[in-house]
C-alpha cells in the first residue's frame, strides 16, 4: 500500500514539473544584455578591479572573468597607450599577470557583443616584500612591532604614480583605520603638486617640495607622542633635504601610536593615482608611561564671572586615570568625572574689595597605576567695571512690528524680557508671538585711543521652557546714538545668518538652562563681545552712544513653541550687565 502511494506521489510530482517546464521558461536575452563578473562570484567586479590585484616580484596573479551571455561575445585584455591604441594581452577570459618589476599595470578587459560593449579597468600591482601600494579609498593599516608612547623616528620612501594625486601616509593608534581623523601625524602627496603635512586643523608646509611622478622621496618623521608634536623632513631625488613641518600638532591627540596607514583618494580627480611606500624603518628613542593632558589655555576672567573648564588626561597604556586638583583658590572647585575627565569651576567673588584679583596657578594631577603627571592652569582675575543695561531694553514682535523702524512694540518693556518662538497652536504659519529681546548699553567714558581689553556679558534667567528644544543665540547690533529699540532689530533665523548683525555666541542659553540661572558669555563669546565693542569704536561710536545686544531663537529649528524669560534693566539687582576693562 505504501509503495503504491509513493508511486502515485512520484507520478504526480513528475507531471507537475513537466507542466511547469512548459509554462515557465527563461525570458529571451535582449540585444543590450551584457554582464562582466568574476568567475564563481557574480556581481559587479568594477570596484574590486579598480582597487587592484597585488603580487610580489616573481609571483603572479591569475584572474578568471566571465561574461553573460557568453555565446556571441568577444573578449580581450588590453593595454592602452596615450592615444588609446590597444596592445592585446589575451583574447581569453583568463589572464595571468606576472609581477616582474615594481609598479602598477592598468589593464582593460573589454567585452563586445554586437553593438553592445562594456569595459572593466583593472589595476595589477607588482610589489617587493615590505612595499605597499595605496588603494583608492581603501585603507591599509600596518602595525608596529611595539607601541610607541614617547619619542621615535619613522622613515620611509615613497613614489607617486602620477602628478597631482591625493595620497597620504599617517601614523595612528587605530587597529584598522577607516577615516583620516584617526591619523595623528600625516604626510601627503597633495593634488596641488607639493608634499605637505597636517597641523592641528589644516594642511600646511614650512618648505615647498614639489613632486614628480615616478620619482622617489625619502621621508623622516620625528615624533613626540607625549607632547603631541611632530616634524617632517623630505629628501628629494637630488638628495636635498627640506624641513616640510616643524613641531606640527597632532590631528588625533592620541597618547600612543601603534601603526602606519596609507590610502589614495580620488575625490574631484579626473585622473587619480596611487603611491608606493617602502623601506619603512622605526627607531624608538624613549618611552613614556605618564598620562598626558589635553592642552588648556591660560584663563583671563573678571570678578563675578563664571567659567567651567573640562580637563582631560589619557594614559598611554590605556590604564584608568584619576584626577585631583592642588592649590585651588577659594573661588574654584574641581570634580573628578571619571574616565580621565575632570571639571574645574571658577567663580571669583565680586564686591569684596578685589579679594580675588590676581594670578594663581592650579595644579591638576593625573595618576595611573604606572605613573603620574601634572598640568598647570594659569588663572588671572582682573577687576572689571560693571555697566548696567539701559532701561530701554525691549522685545520685538514678529508681524506688523517687525522690520518697521518706526513701530516697535513695547508690550513687554517692563521687568521681564520674553524671548522665543517656534510652532504655536494659535497660528503656526504666522506666529505673532515670536519674540526677540534687544538690550541697549551706553558706551562708558573713554579717553581717545582707549580700547576694550576685556568684556563679558552677564544676564539673569527668570524662567525657561524646558520641554522646547531651542537654542537662544547672542548677537551684537550696530551702534546708534539713541537707546531706542527698532522694529528692524527683529530676527529669528539661522545663527550667523543676519548680515546686519555680529554673531557673538551660539547657544548663549538653551532648553537645558536652569530657571534662575546666571548666564555668562563663554571664553570665546567674551572674546567676540570685546571684538564687537572695539569694532563699534572703529566704526565711529563715541562715549554716550549705544550698543545693542540681541538674544533670539532660530524658529526654523524649533520643533515646538518655547521661551526664555530674562530679567530686564528695570530690576537693578538682576539687570543685564557688561563687565569690561579698558586700556
Describe this structure in words.
By secondary structure, the chain is mainly beta. The protein contains 3 helices and 39 strands. The longest helix is centred in the N-terminal third of the chain and has 22 residues, at 2-23. The termini are far apart.
Attribute tags:
8% helix; 6-stranded antiparallel sheet; 39 strands; 583 residues; elongated; mainly beta
Give the end-to-end Cα distance, rounded to a whole number of Å. Answer: 113 Å
Which bin fits the share of residues in helices? under 10%
Instruction: Give me the secondary-structure category.
Output: mainly beta
Shape by Cα distribution: elongated
What is the averaged pLDDT score? 87
Radius of gyration: 35 Å
Percent of residues in β-strands:
over 45%
Please list the strands of the largest sheet in the order they lie side by side. 9-20-11-16-17-18
The stretches of 5 or more residues where confidence is low (pLDDT under 50) are 1-26, 400-405, 424-428
Task: Work out the helix count.
Answer: 3
Number of separate strands: 39
The largest sheet is: 6 strands, antiparallel
Amino acid at each position: 500500500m505504501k509503495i503504491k502511494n509513493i508511486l502515485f506521489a512520484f507520478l504526480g510530482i513528475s507531471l507537475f514539473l513537466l507542466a511547469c517546464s512548459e509554462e515557465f521558461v527563461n525570458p529571451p536575452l535582449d540585444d543590450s544584455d551584457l554582464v562582466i563578473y568574476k568567475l564563481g562570484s557574480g556581481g559587479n567586479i568594477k570596484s574590486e578591479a579598480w582597487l587592484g590585484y597585488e603580487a610580489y616580484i616573481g609571483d603572479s596573479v591569475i584572474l578568471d572573468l566571465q561574461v553573460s551571455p557568453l555565446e556571441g561575445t568577444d573578449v580581450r585584455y588590453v593595454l592602452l597607450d596615450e592615444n588609446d591604441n590597444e596592445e592585446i594581452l589575451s583574447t581569453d577570459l583568463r589572464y595571468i599577470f606576472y609581477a616582474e618589476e615594481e609598479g602598477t599595470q592598468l589593464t582593460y578587459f573589454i567585452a563586445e557583443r554586437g553593438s553592445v560593449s562594456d569595459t572593466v579597468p583593472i589595476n595589477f600591482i607588482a610589489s617587493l616584500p615590505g612595499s605597499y601600494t595605496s588603494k583608492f579609498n581603501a585603507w591599509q593599516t600596518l602595525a608596529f612591532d611595539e607601541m610607541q608612547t614617547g619619542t621615535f623616528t619613522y622613515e620611509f620612501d615613497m613614489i607617486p604614480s602620477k602628478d597631482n594625486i591625493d595620497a597620504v601616509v599617517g601614523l595612528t593608534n587605530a587597529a584598522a583605520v577607516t577615516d583620516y581623523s584617526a591619523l595623528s601625524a600625516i604626510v601627503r602627496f597633495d593634488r596641488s603638486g607639493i608634499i605637505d603635512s597636517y597641523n592641528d586643523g589644516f594642511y600646511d608646509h614650512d618648505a615647498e617640495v614639489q613632486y614628480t611622478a615616478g620619482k622617489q622621496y625619502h621621508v623622516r618623521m620625528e615624533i613626540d607622542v607625549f607632547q603631541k608634536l611632530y616634524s617632517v623632513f623630505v629628501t628629494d631625488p637630488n638628495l636635498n633635504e627640506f624641513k616640510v613641518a616643524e613641531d606640527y600638532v597632532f590631528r588625533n591627540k592620541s597618547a600612543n601610536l601603534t601603526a602606519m596607514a596609507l590610502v589614495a583618494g580620488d575625490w574631484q580627480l579626473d585622473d587619480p593615482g596611487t603611491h608606493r611606500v617602502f623601506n619603512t624603518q622605526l627607531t624608538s628613542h624613549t618611552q613614556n608611561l605618564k598620562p598626558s593632558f589635553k592642552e588648556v589655555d591660560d584663563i583671563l576672567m573678571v570678578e563675578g564671572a563664571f567659567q567651567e573648564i573640562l580637563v582631560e588626561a589619557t594614559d598611554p597604556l590605556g590604564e584608568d586615570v584619576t584626577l585631583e586638583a592642588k592649590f585651588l583658590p577659594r573661588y574654584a572647585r574641581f570634580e573628578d568625572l571619571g574616565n580621565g575627565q575632570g571639571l574645574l569651576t571658577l567663580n571669583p567673588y565680586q564686591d569684596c574689595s578685589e579679594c580675588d584679583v590676581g594670578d594663581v596657578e592650579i595644579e591638576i594631577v593625573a595618576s595611573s597605576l604606572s605613573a603620574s603627571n601634572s598640568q598647570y592652569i594659569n588663572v588671572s582675575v582682573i577687576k572689571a567695571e560693571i555697566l548696567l543695561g539701559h532701561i530701554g531694553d525691549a522685545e520685538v514682535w514678529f508681524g506688523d512690528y517687525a522690520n518697521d523702524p518706526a513701530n516697535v512694540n513695547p508690550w513687554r518693556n517692563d521687568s521681564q524680557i520674553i524671548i522665543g518662538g517656534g510652532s504655536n497652536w494659535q497660528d503656526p504659519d504666522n506666529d505673532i508671538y515670536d519674540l526677540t529681546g534687544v538690550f541697549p548699553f551706553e558706551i562708558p567714558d573713554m579717553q581717545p585711543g582707549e580700547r576694550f581689553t576685556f568684556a563679558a556679558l552677564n544676564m539673569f534667567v527668570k524662567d525657561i521652557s524646558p520641554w522646547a528644544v531651542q537654542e537662544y543665540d547672542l548677537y551684537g547690533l550696530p551702534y546708534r546714538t539713541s537707546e531706542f529699540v527698532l522694529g528692524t532689530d527683529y530676527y529669528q533665523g539661522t545663527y550667523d545668518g543676519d548680515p546686519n548683525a555680529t554673531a557673538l555666541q551660539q547657544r548663549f542659553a538653551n532648553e537645558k538652562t536652569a530657571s534662575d540661572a546666571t548666564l555668562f558669555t563663554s571664553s570665546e563669546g567674551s572674546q567676540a563681545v570685546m571684538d564687537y565693542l572695539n569694532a563699534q569704536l572703529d566704526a565711529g561710536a563715541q562715549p554716550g552712544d549705544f550698543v545693542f545686544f540681541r538674544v533670539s531663537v532660530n524658529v526654523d529649528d524649533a520643533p515646538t513653541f518655547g521661551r526664555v524669560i530674562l530679567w530686564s534693566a528695570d530690576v537693578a539687582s538682576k539687570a543685564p550687565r557688561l563687565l569690561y576693562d579698558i586700556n
